[in-house]
Amino acid sequence: AHSVALHEDGHVVTWGHTVLDQRAGAPTDAGYRALACGDHHSVALREDGHVVTWGSNHGNQMHDAPTDAGYVAIAAGKFHSCAVHADGRVVTW
Predict the structure, then answer these.
(1) Coil, strand, or helix at residue 21?
(2) What are the C-alpha distances in Å from 40 to residues 2, 33, 72, 77, 86?
(3) pTM attached to this predicted model
(4) Are strands 51-55 and 71-76 parallel, antiparallel or unpaired?
(5) pLDDT tops 90 at residue 37
């Protein structure tokens, strides 16, 4: 199990197990506004609307994450994630 938290200055903080690389590749810069945890991966939403993923990709849970900007919300499940774009589109991967 792993956990993530968003510091008031926009930095991501992670802790917990990393047996399956759950914390590998976690962002070290600031500028984030939302976080979500899956089983072995995490998702962050940047202030500029870009989506960032990290952790284990053993179930392809990071494959095909959106690369465009304009997202306003994120969520993560065991082996999937989703993001809502400002234009109303919902993207899942």
Answers:
(1) coil
(2) 8, 21, 23, 9, 27
(3) 0.91
(4) unpaired
(5) yes
